[in-house]
Design a protein that fits this description.
Helix content of chain A: over 70%
Number of helices of chain A: 9
Number of strands of chain A: 0
Largest sheet of chain A: none
Strand content of chain A: under 5%
Shape of chain A: elongated
Oligomer: homodimer
Radius of gyration of chain A: 17 Å
Order of helices and strands of chain A: HHHHHHHHH
Structural class of chain A: mainly alpha
Distance between the termini of chain A: 59 Å
DNA sequence: AGACTAACCGGAGTGGCACCCCGTTTGTCA
DNA sequence: TGACAAACGGGGTGCCACTCCGGTTAGTCT
């Protein structure tokens, strides 16, 4: 990779992080390119489509999220994922779209980290068998997506994990 | 309302129903107008924005959904809502957007019908206090949204209602 | 250092979108 | 039947994602 290419890549990524934080995952790619000081063609050469760019934007943060898994219980980690998804506007939608279209690095990281916690919780009898980590992550994604960036996410997640029975 | 206006209104609505069924709630409004044989300006005069059109498209179906509430338990009715949301692509997203921006007729109907069922379930001790119908509907919307039109919706809803404990 | 070349760049273009303006047509009702 | 308000839609605006291609540049090899 040539040095100018790398420099532009990083400028675009930085602009994208800022713009996504400000306006969500449906931010204008043209504006990101403009903010980065490159032509839109350059943006599209580095990131074939919106999805690819979003993957890159979220990758680092997802990585740290997965690194935290060792220090948390399944429930607390799922809460962290929910909170992250709710604050990082559009992560959920982005991951969802990724799951639908192509295998995403982010998703694999999340299922790996969460899968370990889930197995642990199942062995200690806190979670019943037949629950898959993908189910739980889909649920978290769903809730993040539905509550946008509101504070409802955690409450709804707890509700879903606890069930509605007394 | 003039007769031509009414005729165009209905043509647009019919085209919208077909198009939404085919491609989801993010269907092209221009294409709907084209299919209806009217100019795009006419579509926008009758329906100020995408949200208004979607409301109209879903209104009838939501009405029948609410009418069924009397014959079903809370759980079964929520399943019906989930199934409906999953098959009618984009209903969930649409209702969500509605909830965020303006009070929607559809949403009020759903909270009324579901609220009655929930009170009933709480009085008979099947559902604990502190659970609100809006929580449950948000959850259902979330799941419909996340599972797109897949068959996962019901399974995830049951999971959420039951909780993860053994 | 100089020259070569493949990689890279971005302005300009394409086709599509939602939504609006305004001159024209049409239904209605006296 | 004539007048007029109501409704129509072609065409326009500004935005978007994404692509093409002629010019530029960074790295390499002598």
């Amino acid at each position: 990779m040539r040095s100018d290419a790398r420099r532009n890549y990083e400028r675009i990524l930085a602009a994208a992080v800022a713009e996504v934080a400000a306006t969500g995952a449906d931010a204008s790619l043209e504006k990101i390119a403009r903010d980065a000081g490159v032509g839109s063609a350059t943006l599209h050469r580095h990131f074939a489509n919106r999805q690819a760019l979003m993957e890159a934007v979220f990758h680092d943060r997802v990585e740290t999220l997965c690194a935290q898994a060792g220090d948390l219980t399944l429930t607390d980690w799922l809460r962290a994922v929910a909170e992250f998804g709710a604050t990082t506007r559009g992560l959920a939608a982005s991951l969802l779209a990724a799951g639908a279209t192509a295998d995403s690095g982010c998703e694999a990281m999340l299922t790996d980290a969460g899968g370990a916690l889930l197995r642990q919780a199942q062995q200690s009898g806190e979670v019943r068998a037949g629950v898959a980590i993908t189910d739980l992550l889909t649920l978290v994604n769903a809730i993040s997506l539905a509550t946008q960036d509101g504070p409802e996410a955690i409450r709804l997640l707890d509700l879903a994990l606890k069930g509605v029975a007394p």
